[in-house]
Amino acid sequence: MCRNIKPLFNFEPPATRNEMHDAALQFVRKISGYNTPSQANEAAFHEAVEDIEKVVRKLLKSLETHAPPKDREEEAEKKRERSKLRFG
Fold first, then answer.
1. CA–CA dist 15, 9 (Å, integer)
2. In angstroms, how far is CA 86 from the centroid of its own chain?
3. Global pTM?
4. CB-side exposure of 76: number of CA atoms within 13 Å?
């Protein structure tokens, strides 16, 4: 799976529409093999992004958990620490 797609569920504050759009865009790019579609495929590409974004919103609204929400800043700091260890 594409490493640029970040988990969006169970965060405080919740995922924004922009984050959901970015995840949908990355997914469509990965599946289609296009970073930027040709004019002939542009409409289908953007329609797919919109459709997937709607499904992502629906999914995130319907998921349930008993775990406490993760803090975005704490998770970002953990990621930076892992990156330092990995890349020096």
1. 7
2. 23
3. 0.82
4. 6
Which residue is listed with tokens 């469509």?
Answer: 28
Q: Are 23 and 56 in contact (CB under 8 A)?
A: yes
> What single-letter DSSP state applies at residue 4?
T
Q: Report the C-alpha gap between 25 and 19 in whole angstroms.
A: 10
Which tens digit of pLDDT belongs to each residue from 38-69? 999 999 999 999 999 999 999 999 999 999 99
Q: Which residue has the tokens 């405080």?
A: 12
Helix spans in the chain (H): 17-32, 39-62, 72-87
Q: CA–CA separation, 76 vs 60, rounded Å?
A: 20
Taken in order 39, 57, 59, 67, the sign of the CA dihedral is: positive
From CA 48, how far away is CA 76, in angstroms rounded?
29
CA-nearest of 6, 26, 5, 22 to 72 is: 6
